[in-house]
Fold these 4 entries.
Entry 1:
Amino acid sequence: MIILDGGMGQELVKRAGKATDLWSMQALLDTPEIVRAIHDEYFAAGAEIATTNTYSILPDRLISKGLIEQLIPMTRSACEMAVAARDVHGSGQVAGSLGPLGFSYQPDKAPPAEQAAEVYADMAQLHAEYVDFHILETMSSIDQARGGLMGAGVTGKPVWVSFSVDDSDGTKLRSGEPLLGAISMLEEFQPVTVLINCSVPEAVSQGLPILAGRGFNLGAYANGFTGIHSDFNSIHATVDLLKSRTDLGPEQYLNFAKTWAAMGASAIGGCCEVGPEHIAVMAKHFGV
């Protein structure tokens, strides 16, 4: 079992005491030491992967804020902090996070795959100097994942891809497409690991069996939200629109993780609202 880290963005919001429409990028500008501290805490809890705080460092996000000149320095800073935490810990790997273009959970706002691939290729090349592998996160349609896989593949580093599924029906992507429909595309690009992330745990449990037994490694990392608010639909939205569950403590989350492991998942961690305490309980259970 590979124990992934947990969420970065919501941990930053908790510690900063505020949410902004720059999401986790705000901390890179204001309090980068907190980003590094969170990486350190995840490793101390038993995580074997540090996921770079680059999920939202994408050209469309930065252009909309008049911050495009920060793209390269912010990317490098985020990657360097993950690498430094890994090196101090003495083991583990660094995953270069590539989030969705357009906006999370809104694949209709993403550019077509061929256009998206150019952006992802540029970002992956920036990450490649630092990371052990690329991870495409919260891909919410088949075309969105295709664009990410086309782009990230240019560096020659391993690529993981993670889908976000419908919270009310985990057999479907957030686009409404059946998750089963992604299989032929995955077989074409052959990512090392295919995961489901940033969906409620119950939906993850519904989706994983569809991906199982397809010849690639399987993984999962759910969020701890009650669901995605309808107003959380643009790059100007803030995460305070999203409410946290009160029934998903470390032991409750571990119960879901056990189910995912039984379904064949070999990489398990957490997404938004899943923190170091959750990772510590999973690492202890799975013997990491």
Entry 2:
Amino acid sequence: MRIVFFGSPEYAVPSLRRCLALPDVEVVAVVTQPDRARGRSGKLLATPVKELAVEAGVPVILQPERVRRETTEELRALSPDVGVVAASGHILPNHLLEMFPHGVVNVHASLLPRHRGASAVAASIFDGDAESGATIMRVVREVDAGPVLGQVRTPIGVLDTTETLTERISELGAELLAEVLPRWVAGEIEAVEQDESEVTHAPRLAKGDGVIDWSQSSEEIGRRVRAFQPWPLATTLYGGERFTVHEAWPLAEFTSDAAPGSVVPFTSDAPPGTVVAGDGTELSPLLGDRVARAVVVCGSGGLALLRVQRAGRQAQAIEVYLNGDRELVGSVLG
């Protein structure tokens, strides 16, 4: 089997590694994003996929801004059997999709048809899904709409962020790809069309999506803090400057039917966005000995701050941060 691999970020690395390790398989080319300047130095850096491809000695590494006809013809000359995509960042035109005898398959980071699009992992967290996973699907011109070849599931933990969940899904998806791909090329798998009535979309995130709306519930804001880690990050304004909430824990409003110990109760008459002093209550066994030090009043409940960052400074645990800024408590964010 001759594979052309399309991928760029760290998410794609486990899938490429599995393709390289498959018996009787040759990765004849890798298509990835161009080297780009990163950091203050402006140094050009290769994508993680290119780094692995170079290390593995993949004979052809292409880095087009866009996949044009010349790219397709260059790949056609390699006589590939199938294409594999894992977050390449390229739009693949019909002339390329139709070139492969066994089509192009994609390792998508959601349980399709739920969360089609670029921010699928973040969407699964801030929508409050109980589980996510990876889907192997055949690529068609409509985004993530192709028929499904296989799926693998994983629960979403209350501490999962987009970063941790993406890492887990990338490994699970790579394992599934290694099982599915040889069987697909051998004609042993029948693709299953997606149920269009179950489709949801997860468009690409923008920097402004991370701005916190304190009128929302603490549960929703807490999920968004996790969903927007590591980008675009959950932010608000404090003293007219950007203030980032890296970690937090939602405190629910007390309800009479709540089982004892099931929630950390929180009520306040202060307006949403107000930072009040925590009472030292332990937050959750999952957080070790962390306690409520500073809580932001939300539309319902409150958000216990755990790790924050003021503009121009390093991110700090709230216990450390408050040692240098007692005025946070009593302020109004947003």
Entry 3:
Amino acid sequence: MNDPKMKRRNFLQTIGLGSACISAPGILYPAGATSDQKLNIIFILVDDLGWSDLGCYGADLHETPNIDRLARQSMKFTDAYAASPVCTPTRASIMTGKHPARLHMTVWRENSLDPPRDRQLIPPVTQNNLPHDQFTIAEALKQAGYFTAHVGKWHLGGAEHYPETQGFDVNIGGTLWGAPYSFFHPYSGWRTPDEFRYVPHLEFGQPGEYLTDRLTDEAIRILNRVHDRPFFLHLAYHTVHTPIEGKPELVRYYKNKIQPGMNHQNAGFAAMVHSLDENVGRILSKIEELGVAENTVIFFFSDNGGYINRYRDDPAPVTSNHPLRSGKGSLYEGGIRAPLMIRWPGVTTAGSICRQPVCSTDFYPTILSMANAEGDAVHNADLDGVNLTPLLRNAEAQWDRDVLCWHYPHYYFYPATTPVSAIRKGNWKLLEHFEDNRLELFDLENDLGEKNDLAETMPDKANELQDQLIAWRVNVNAQLPSPNQ
């Protein structure tokens, strides 16, 4: 439970940055459900899956028939964003409904522990563990009578901050590490002379067993045991993060499929996407088999944009976020815009498309509303997320929030980024770079690829957005980098 003396949020109503918390009067029941029948919730979180890595989002190499089918059954979002361009902060935002800048969790855990100190700016000292005084989505749902299970990647703290300490009844595979040593059994090995990585609770595997398959096996075992009671399954696949290791037969298949001019050129990555798709299909089939599909909400999301650098000696970039600019680690669209689909039987219209900008902070209040869970009043008073249920009922519903902000006061691997903040208001997007105080202004409606910087030709608009961005940073007590003197 939170410290009752926690400071409550000072709303910035004058610039439209207020928090809408949990505004729905109660749960919206799917067709056939009754007031005593709680919704089940499955949240599928993929690691480093880019906005255009799925067939339903325009991929030209990858084959994703199961996820495409899920999209046809769901509401698909075109302008969904991760709260950060890297993993740990976005995952913290999902767990808490709060912006990484507010949590002071703005970079992945390993970098937080050992930030670079040889660059022009020194990153701030940040949290490397999700604090226990934050009331997580799992704690809120457990309080409401749900069985809560985490399977896969955690990356939100050391052992004393593992999922079991944050409201999950079961944790399979969740550790402090951001990536496995290998995607093939036994999933373990010496990453450095001082670091041995492993994925716990996956004992007794067989040679050739694949991590994405095994995590799904474990998720299905959980579903088999708990499907007769309300459950929350947080299925956080390690794929498609490095190491880039697809099943050999699939890698061969995609090597033969690659054609000149395709945006996607990496057969190993395509094979990983293929296995992801197969396993999403297995989850969909299992809930149908168990007879709970019509009472189960499914979220499908990625924690940030696709990784566009090369991996080891492969000449092809890991992926492409075309038509978006840049990728993971950047506050250009390629680093933060992510695929999102939500299937809520009886509420979302199959095949509907929502073009409103939404963010990973929004999942917390949305899920609490779906589950008719109260959560913690002090925690809820400080949320940054907005309840999406009005949009899920009607993609054209009036949407009062038109501002989203990001803050990444860190460095990422070339060519992604130096320390930067960003704001999107309507279709206008501003980036503020801290090394040289440079501003970039883009019109996303006419320039989705962020190729035409309008900051010099539209200084009034740039300054207006910068003022709002600065005010937001003050409001959330965002940390700034300092000069390296």
Entry 4:
Amino acid sequence: MSKNNFEVLRAGINTTYQDHGRNHLYHVGIPFSGAMDNRNYLIANDLVGNKKNTPVIEFAYQGPLLKFNGGKIYLAITGDVNFNIIKKNLKIEKGNCYQTYHFEDGDQIDILSTNKSVYGYLAVSGGFNVELFWNSSSTNTKSRIGGNNGQKLNKGDIVQNLKKQKVHQLKKLNYFNSRIEQIRIIKGTNYSYFSEAGKKIFLEKIFSVSKLTDRMGMRLEGPKIENIFDTNIRSEGLIKGVIQVPPDGKPIIMLSDHGTIGGYPKIGSVISADYDKLVQLPAGSKIKFKEVSLFEAENLYKIYSMETQNILNQIR
């Protein structure tokens, strides 16, 4: 076991351990969780030679300030992130995302902020020594399960490196996070509950991401979507990306730590191919929905998956 560790000098905002998530637990009220932006999560682990389901540190808006203690390791940051490397001689180096860095005892990484986005990822060679809860280390702070006893990282915490793992060469990936103009959706199971005018508003008007957004859900601001059937229904199962419309007519998109049942009608569901980009939209961002068929959504996910694999192949 490696004695390498990071001391948390500043925790940042919503800094947690995340991996690929936990399966087959919706029936007991436990959502999938896992990294919000799956593509950036996978890239981070590949850059430091880790297996694809290795835990990483996910942060929102402002990341942590970490001091490394131990032997030689490698780390990488993915996302659209502003950060500095502070060497043990106090020399400051401007960091670049999608690049592997060599760290030695006393070096620090200062993750200052994300740039017009929300989430970033820190991976280290060998991964972090994080306990599993139902076969996943993903932290769900609402349910208090996962890594770090289900809590965010705090100042003074010690983050243990799991084991040494050789990275044969420093790696760099020329990858840029694209912006999105439209979020594609398929019709929800309660689509018929809404008036024709309400459906038209949903698909043609612009909504904005509110500040009432976290890993559980994204609340939108904009014109009211009229329900002509029932604004409260018997609670039904929910999935990641489903769009509920409460009585106030303002949509809420369920995200990775969402509740597993809900009683608001579901007008649509964000397709899996657009989910990574959706979660990176900060408060104030504009969203316009576009309907696609289930067949189109399946093909778009295949394209997304192939694109992700092609990106990972550039690293290997």
